[in-house]
Amino acid sequence: MKIHSETLDNGMPMLFLPTPNLNSVALTVAVNYGIMNAENKKVALPHILEHLLFTGTSKLSEEEIQAILRKYGISSNAMTTNDYTIYYMQVYKSYVNKAADLLADMVINSTPSKVSIINQKEVVRSEYIMYLSNPFDMALSDLNDQLLSSRVGFKFGYRQQIESIGNISAKDFLEAYRKHYTPKNMTLTIVGNLKASEAKKLGERYFGSFQNAGSNAVAEEGVSKQEEESEAKENFAEAGIAIGRLIDNSNANPKELAKWMLLSKTIDDAMFDYIREEKGLSYWPHSDIDIARTYACIYLYANSKKENSSKVEESINTLLTKLGTNADLLSKYISNARKEIAIKQKLVEDSALETAIRLSEYSLSGNKELFNFVSNPRSLKSISKREIEEALKELMRSDTVKVKIIPK
User: Fold this and answer.
1) Whose CB among 82, 202, 243, 296 lies 3.0–4.6 Å from 300's, allowing a Cys bridge?
2) How do residues 274-305 score in pLDDT, each as one tens digit?
């Protein structure tokens, strides 16, 4: 598949991937602004700002936005990560102009009110409290802190984000919006049944002329620190265990990243078979990889009963040792992982929205080539078992970070 790279008149990068067999079109706007880019003591700001962009613009109220989404069957959402924020929409091809117009209006012309800011701060607070009630999420949050906090100079896990909400003012939102939501700090991605010329015209029409977002927004005074902070009660019924390793991504090598993706999937399948099916110790043992602009992280995590937490940790270590010493076992899981990644990628390519999100994420990490690399089964076969063995040894080094969240 050929990925078309363009630059709009205002300097905004644009990616377009044609999908002639699909009747839907997906659009994403990715912003190089995530949790790790916020100030210390205000780390929840990027996530709350993401929520605020759905609450009204200089042209449309929140109710009018929802009415347009329903009328034209537009699927819309957003997500904030450590490294970036992505807004996305998917719509039937006939209504792509409606979706593009709405997405541009929300991202560029948002005018959050005082009431919206108060409400969304509480919505995000509730979301984080929900995460803090899950040992899975807590273990991953603490693991992220240990792996990445040295890069920004402060911790930014769920506890810190909850504590920071009361420190964030309306002025903070406006300053962040205007500073980070600029053409050269954002990327438009379009995936769908369009011609390249049509996609470029669409991008220019709706996104190609603005210079800074938030020109009509006003910081309403009176949004002050909350007097009462909701307490996150960490009364877990289960334990959570997470193991992770930071991977350098500064050279933006698609094969190197694909190697870690393949290792992660290899371990994921093996953990399910060994820890869940054979040992019966965890409902959802899992391995995953997070790829960002300058780093990647591989994670292994599992839930368990409190009394089984040590057994789960031992089982993970035993499994990694088995994979590292049993060549036939490792070959079996590598082969399965290659097939599953290829099948999953095919499913992604059958959805304009999933393709657009994946392409946006890879592009933000400086690796849009990774999209085509993973799409090609021959590329995955070029990653040898020896390379996976070396990555596995690196994962098993003594400085790999471990986190355990165990109920009192």
Assistant:
1) 243
2) 998 888 888 889 999 988 877 889 999 998 88
